[in-house]
UniProtKB/TrEMBL annotation, chain A:
CDD domains: TM_PBP2 (cd06261). Residues 61-251 form the ABC transmembrane type-1 domain. PROSITE patterns: ABC_TM1. Gene3D superfamilies: MetI-like (1.10.3720.10). One of its GO terms (biological process) is amino acid transport. It is found in: Cell membrane. This is Polar amino acid transport system permease protein.
Automatic annotation (TrEMBL), chain B:
Signal peptide: none annotated. InterPro entries: AAA+_ATPase, ABC_ATPase_HisP-typ, ABC_transporter-like_ATP-bd, ABC_transporter-like_CS, MetN_ABC_transporter-like, P-loop_NTPase. Residues 5-249 form the ABC transporter domain. It catalyses: a polar amino acid(out) + ATP + H2O = a polar amino acid(in) + ADP + phosphate + H(+). This is ABC-type polar-amino-acid transporter. The lineage of its organism: Bacteria, Bacillati, Actinomycetota, Actinomycetes, Pseudonocardiales. It is found in: Cell membrane. It comes from Saccharothrix tamanrassetensis. Keywords: ATP-binding, Cell membrane, Membrane, Nucleotide-binding, Transport. It is an enzyme of class 7 (translocase). Pfam families: ABC_tran (PF00005). GO terms for molecular function: ATP binding; ATP hydrolysis activity; ATPase-coupled polar amino acid-transporter activity. The keyword Mitochondrion does not apply.
Length: 266, 263
């Protein structure tokens, strides 16, 4: 009996629920939901089609992208500075940076955006110009997003710094580098690997987070969708337009992230 | 000849714990001093104080008559600017127990980084010199590998080449072979032996009593933050005056690799 065992077919356990069963249920539920929405007489697909590539929507996508990249830029520069401050042996510097992170990470993003938008209530003029002329909705949106993002990126970058063994900084100091040079040439390049995956995630969060600026009419994709359905009452159709665009942008970002990571590891 | 060191009254505390309690040490140009002592006696801290990786609380270090990390003004010692500290530090190469190679750079880039970034040397010249140095430590064939692709002994030899590339007057070694598998210790000690033979001033913290016996001019025994005994290698290792030295040596000879297994 033993000498024939090796010729027998092996049948693996599949677990309690069968793949086919789960698949069938999923297809049924999603399909039913999709179909009800799709064929609902209250949803006008022609409206979705008409507005998907309409000028105001495309402009909104442009503003969303500009806001996203600008936020990332501000967040990276300020966040790197904050991360270095937190590492500093100067207790005032590190406390200031930790305080910044505590505050800007703790206050809801929408509150910060609305605050910058209403800065004129606090300071009616900035220098010679009326505050409202200096702090446009776009700038208010950028300030709110950028300062908030810097707090998150500071923590991510600090985590990246911590992943580089301290001994390498000692070694850099012993060959005559200053701390700043050691950070730039030894710590930063190595922490990129740790930072990059988290950064991709953060990019996608920012991309969608920009939709919050619609509360102050920031001119982004979400603002435009709201403006349009405010006039024609096709709320669901325009939400679908916005959803479609966000999914397209997130998909492109995810693919970009995979490429970047592969490049960083190589 | 350059490379003389003078340490006077070095004190250093971490919080409430006084790790160095007044250390005096003279190292003549070209002299090799081996520092031995039990774990926690302050050997690493002493080396880190010599090149101001740890600022001292009291006392001073002189390299060829220039103060390390401080300036003498108005009867007081003021800590130098970071730039000046860095300038003084380059006169002292340091080799660590854990190698501390820059892991994102190849062996040859590890060696050229200092000369190019710090001394502003021409990259191509620096690379030629670096390859020469790597050849001298027996790594000509491994110059373009990353640290992760090298054995511990090879990494430590790259680290020595990296320090030598700055043309230091003094070399500081902190248990350079303690993290190595026994069969790799020899190749690193050979390189250090050669350096000593070429007249490099060296302070070597080590548990390799054999190396100390063969290479050191002076052996220093440290315990609890002070130098308990120091003298010619032969005398300290073979007929120590202090009982603590004798007990420590007996312990190390009985358990040759135990003392540094804490790494
Ligand atoms: N950065 C630090 N902060 C706090 N305590 C420290 C620090 N560095 C060293 N110490 C303490 O100082 C004492 C001496 O440490 P040191 O590393 O100099 O000893 P050592 O003689 O090199 O020992 P070993 O043989 O284990 O390497 C130890 O008690 C250690 O815990
Ligand atoms: Mg030590």
């Amino acid at each position: 009996m033993l000498d024939t065992l090796h010729t027998l077919e092996v049948v693996r356990r599949r677990g309690i629920v069968s793949r086919w069963g789960v698949g069938a249920v999923l297809v049924a539920v999603v399909g039913w939901l999709g179909c009800t929405v799709a064929v609902s007489p209250n949803l006008e697909w022609t409206v979705v089609g008409r507005y998907f590539l309409a000028t105001p929507v495309i402009e909104g996508v442009g503003v969303t992208l500009v806001l996203t990249f600008a936020t990332l830029g501000i967040g990276l520069v300020l966040g790197a500075a904050l991360a270095m401050m937190m590492q500093s042996r100067n207790p005032v510097l590190s406390a200031a940076a930790s305080g910044y992170v505590w505050f800007f990470r703790g206050v809801p993003l929408v509150v910060q955006i609305v605050f910058w938008f209403n800065l004129s209530l606090l300071f009616p003029t900035l220098g010679f110009a009326p505050t409202n002329q200096v702090v446009t909705p776009f700038l208010a949106a950028l300030l709110g997003l950028g300062l908030h993002e810097a707090a998150y990126l500071a923590e991510i970058i600090r985590g990246g710094f911590l992943a580089v063994p301290r001994g390498q900084v000692d070694a850099a100091l012993t060959i005559g580098m200053t701390r700043a040079t050691a950070t730039r040439t030894i710590v930063l390049p190595q922490s990129i690997r740790v930072i990059l995956p988290a950064l991709g995630n953060q990019f996608i969060l920012i991309l969608k987070g920009t939709s919050l600026v619609s509360v102050i009419g920031g001119g982004d994709l979400m603002t435009r969708a709201q403006q349009i359905y405010g006039q024609n009452y096709q709320v669901i159709a325009l939400l679908l337009v916005a959803t479609g665009w966000y999914l397209v942008l997130v998909t492109v970002a995810s693919i970009g992230q995979r490429f970047l990571e592969r490049w960083a590891v190589a | 000849m350059v490379g003389g060191l003078r340490l006077r009254g070095i004190r250093k505390s971490f919080g409430a714990q006084e790790v160095l309690r007044g250390v005096d040490l003279d190292v003549a140009p070209g002299e090799v001093v081996c520092v031995i002592g039990p774990s926690g006696s302050g050997k690493s801290t002493l080396l880190r104080c010599v090149n101001h990786l740890e600022p001292v609380d009291a006392g001073f270090v002189l390299v060829d008559d220039s103060l390390v990390g401080y300036e003498h003004r108005d009867g007081r010692l003021f800590e130098s600017s970071e730039r000046d500290v860095a300038r003084t530090r380059r006169r002292m190469g340091m080799v660590f127990q854990q190698f501390n190679l820059f892991s994102h750079l190849t062996a040859v880039r590890n060696v050229t980084l200092g000369p190019v970034r710090v001394l502003g040397r021409d990259p191509r010249e620096a690379e030629q010199e670096a390859r020469g140095l790597l050849a001298r430590v027996g790594l000509a064939a491994h110059a373009d590998k990353l640290p992760a692709q090298l054995s511990g002994g090879q990494q430590q030899r790259v680290a020595i080449a990296r320090a030598m590339a700055m043309k230091p007057a003094v070399m500081l070694f902190d248990e350079p072979t303690s993290a190595l598998d026994p069969e790799l210790v020899g190749e690193v000690l050979t390189v250090m032996h050669d350096l000593a033979a070429q007249g490099m001033t060296m302070i070597v913290v080590t548990h390799e009593i054999g190396f100390a016996h063969d290479v050191a001019d002076t052996v220093v025994f440290m315990d609890e933050g002070v130098i308990v005994e120091s003298g010619p290698a032969e005398q300290v290792l073979l007929s120590p005056k202090s009982e603590r030295t004798a007990a420590f040596l007996a312990h190390v000879r009985r358990h040759p690799r135990k003392e540094h297994d804490h790494a």
